[in-house]
Amino acid sequence: MNKEIKSSEILICCGTGCVSAKADKILEKFKQDTKGKKIKVKPTGCHGFCQQGPLVITEPDGILYSRATTEDVNEIINSHIENNVPVERLFYTDPQTGEKIPHYKNIQFYKEQQRVILRNCGHINPEDINEYVKSGGYRAIKKALLDLNPEKVLKMIKDSCLRGLGGAGFHTGLKWEFCFNAKGDEKYIICNGDEGDPGSFQDRSVFEGDPHSVLEGIIIAGTTIGAKKGFIYVRAEYPLAVKRLKIAIDQARKKGFLGKNIFDSKIDFDLEIFQGAGAFVCGEETALIASIEGQRGMPRRRPPFPANSGLWGKPTLINNVKTYASISNIINNGVEWFTKMGTDNSKGTAIFSLTGEVANCGLVEVPMGRTLREIIFGIGGGTTDNKKFKAVQIGGPSGGCLPDSLLDLPVDFDSLKEAGAMMGSGGMVVMDESTCMVDVSKYFLDFTQKESCGKCTFCRVGTKRMLEILVRITEGEGTEEDLSILEELAKSIKNNSLCGLGQTAPNPVLTTIKYFRDEYIAHVVDKKCPAKVCKKLLTYTIIPEKCTGCVVCAKNCPSNCITGERKEVHFINQDDCIKCGICYDRCKFEAIHVE
Amino acid sequence: MRIERIAGKKETQATEEDYSLISEKILKYKGKTGITIPVLQTIQKAFGYLPKNILKQTSIDLRIPLNELYGVASFYSQFRFTPVGKNMIMVCKGTACHVKGAEKILDEISRKIGIKDGETSTDMEYTLEGVACIGCCALAPCITINNEVHGRLNTKSIDKIFKSKKAEGKNQ
Ligand SMILES: Cc1cc2nc3c(=O)[nH]c(=O)nc-3n(C[C@H](O)[C@H](O)[C@H](O)COP(=O)(O)O)c2cc1C
Ligand code: FES
Questions:
Q1: Running along chain B, 172 residues long, what does each successive block of 10 average in pLDDT?
Q2: Model ipTM value
Q3: Average pLDDT, chain A
C-alpha cells in the first residue's frame, strides 16, 4: 500500500440502501468523532455496491470498508486516519478467492464497470452544488449557451445517436428535433422519474447521488427546444430523492442557474417537482402528462405525440432521468467520445440494477453491448450459495426471462428485443434453481393486471384471463391446452392494446413458455413444481431417520398440525397443513422433506 | 384493473376530521390548474388518509366536483379512504423481493398480527400493506415499519422484530 497518500476525506454512502442499514448513524458518529480534526466527512449518494453496505470510503487513497457499523468508527479514525494503518478486518473479501481487497478500484464489481452517467454518484455530496461545479458541472450548459446555439446542440445530440434510456430506446436527437420544430411559443419539458418497474432503482440513485447532472441536462434540453418551464416527475415512494432534488433546485436558483435570465443570458427557465401518487402506468408518457394535469393517469392515443401536443396541449419534450444525465457528458466530451462506447446501433452506456440471487447486488454501469455473462458472472460474481443459474429477468413487467443459453447475448436495445425481452428501465433480476418460472410469470401478470388502467379491453380483460389460467396452472388444475390458449391471448393483447403497458405485458409469459416450457409441462402434466415454490403442489413430510424429536417444528407450526412427543419422531397431518414452509426453515436437522 | 383496488375493502370507522387544520393550505390552491393530486397529497399528509368530510369541503372550496376528486384518488394506490393504524407495515412485493420469498414474509406477518394485506387491526395498532419495490432491492426481502427499513429477512428475524415491538408497546 502506498504510504505516501494520506486520506483527507471520509465518504459515507447515504443512498437509500445504505441508510436502511444505518449509514446515517455512522455519518453522525464520524462527524462527532472527527470534530476539530483536519479531515472532511461527507455523505454521498449511492456508491453502487448496496450488497456490502453501509459503505465507508476514504479518499484520495480509495479504500473501501464494507458492512461498517458505528462500532467500527473509532477504529477507522484511530488506526487509518491518525496512523495510516487501514483496518483490514473491514475490507471487502472476494467470495471466490477469499482475498481481502482494500481498494475499491480493484474489486471485481467496480473493475469492469465504466461509470460515465454515474461518475459523480458516491463521490460528491449531492446536497452541495459547489461540489458538482468543482467536478466540472454546469460547464456544458455554459458552453451550450455561449459557444454553441440550439441548432448546434441539436446536431450534437443527433450525431451522438443517444437513445432514450427510459425503455423504448427512441432516438433522443430526433425527439428533440420534433419539439424544436413544433409550432407554439409555449413549450414544456418533463423528466420522467416514475421508475415503476419493481426491482429497479437506477433513476432513484441518480436523483439521490447526482441530482445536478439531471438538472443540467434538463436545462440544456429546455434552452435548446425553447421551453421555459419543466417538471420533474418523481415516484411517490422516493422521499429521499424528492428531498435532494428540492435542495438542488433551490441551490441552482440561488446561483442564477434557474429562474429569470439564467447564466446571465436572456433566457428564462424554471423547474418544478411533481410527486407521483403510485401508478405504474404513469410511467407511460401520455399517462404521466394526464397525471400532471390532475387527472386519472390514463394513456391517450398517439398521434398526436407529446412533441406536438403534450402537457395542456402544448409541445412537450419527455425524457428519462438517465437520458438527461447523459447530455452534459456529450456536450463536454464531444460526439466522438460518446460514439466510441457501445455497439453499432446502441451507443453509450446503460445502467442496470443487478438484484435477486446474485452475489454482488447493486448498481452497474457498462457500455452497451456487454454480454449478460460479463455482467452477471463478471461484475455480479455469479449466483449465491453455489446454486445453479436459471434465468435473468430484464426490463421488469415489460421484459422477459432469458435462460442460460442466451448468456452470451450482447445487451443492447435491439438484441434484447429480438430475444423477446426489453431494455426497459434496466432492472436485472437474477434467478436460480429455487425460482419457479411459472410463478414468476404469474407474478408479473398479477402486477400488470392490477396496474392496467382499464381503458382498453384487450389489456383490461385479456391480462385478467391470462392470470386466471396461470393461477390454475400453479394450483395443479392446468392442462396442456392452456399453454396454447395463453400464447393466443398473448398475441392478441400485444397487437391490440392502446399503450405500451398492454403491448408488452405478455412478454414475461411468452419468454417463460418459450425458454422454460418443460417447467410448465411439469406443472400441467406431472402436477409438480420442480423449484418447490407453488404451494398447492407441495407436500411437506418428516424424514423419520433425521427427526430428533426436538419439537421446534411443532412449536412453530402456525396451524398446529405437527404432532409428536419430545425425543420421538414427529408427524405432519396433511389435511391441516397450510404449506407455509416454516417447519422447513426452522428444522436444524434437515428432517423436513418437500416435494 | 386499478378500480378493484378499493372495491373489495370494507369501510372502517368513519370519523369527522377537523377541516380547519388544513383549510389554509387548501385555499392556497384556489384558481390554479393541475392541482388535484397535490391537494389530495396535502390532505393525506395531514390525516393519514382522505376523510369523507374533508373531501366534501375541499370540493366546495376549490370548486372541483367531488366525483372528480374521488375519481382521481381512487386511481392512485398512494391514496387511502380509511384511517391507518399506529404502526404502518409495508411489505415489499417487488420482483427482487418476490424472488427472495416476499410472499412467505407477508404470510408470516399477517399471521403474527392477525390481519390481511391491506387491512388495519381493530385496535388501530397495525396497518399491513403489500407494496411494489421500496428501492432496497439489494437487501431483499425487506419491509418497512413506520418508514424504517428492515432487510434480509426470514421468518425467524420477523419473530424477533415483533417480539421487540411488543415489548416496546408494553413499556409505553
Ligand atoms: C407502462 C409503461 C411504463 C413506463 N415507465 C417508464 C418509467 O418508469 N420511466 C421512464 O423513463 N419511461 C417509462 N416509460 C417510457 C415512456 O413512455 C417514455 O418512452 C420515456 O419516458 C421516454 O424517455 P426516453 O426517450 O428518454 O427513454 C414507460 C412506458 C410504458 C408503456
Ligand atoms: S424489490 Fe423489494 S425493494 Fe425492490
A1: 52 72 93 92 93 94 94 92 90 92 91 90 91 85 88 87 75 55
A2: 0.89
A3: 92
Closest Cα partner for B135 from A181, A253, A194? A194
Taking the model in full, what pTM does it have?
0.92
Angle at A485 between CA A482 and CA A489, to 5 degrees: 140
Contact A48, A38 (CB under 8 A): no
Cα–Cα distance measured from residue A513 to residue A486, given in angstroms and rounded to the nearest whole number: 9
Question: How far is residue B30's CA from residue B38's CA, in Å, rounded to a whole number?
Answer: 12
Closest Cβ–Cβ partner in B38, B76, B148 for A279: B76
Q: Which of A11, A31, A30 is nearest to A74 (CA)?
A: A30
- Reduced to 3 states, what is the DSSP secondary structure of residue A189? strand
Note which residues in 132-151 of chain B have CB less than 8 A from chain A.
132-140, 142, 148-149, 151
pLDDT digits (tens, 9 = 90+) for A529-584: 999 999 999 999 999 999 999 999 999 899 999 999 999 999 999 999 999 888 99
Q: Is the pLDDT of residue A323 over 60?
A: yes
Antiparallel, parallel or unpaired: β B148-150 and B143-145: antiparallel
**B78 touching A (Cβ < 8 Å):** yes
Which carries the bigger pLDDT value, residue A396 or residue A151? A151
Sorted by where each starts, the structural domains of chain A and their CATH numbers stand as 9-107 (3.40.30.10), 129-339 (3.40.50.11540), 349-432 (3.10.20.600), 437-526 (1.20.1440.230), 539-594 (3.30.70.20)
Site of grid cell 396497518? B127
Q: What is the mean pLDDT of residues A475-502?
A: 94
Query: What is the rounded distance in angstroms from the CA atom of residue B116 to the CA atom of residue B105?
Result: 12
Give A436 to chain B, closest Cα distance, Å. Answer: 9
E runs forming strands in A176-283: 188-193, 229-234, 270-275
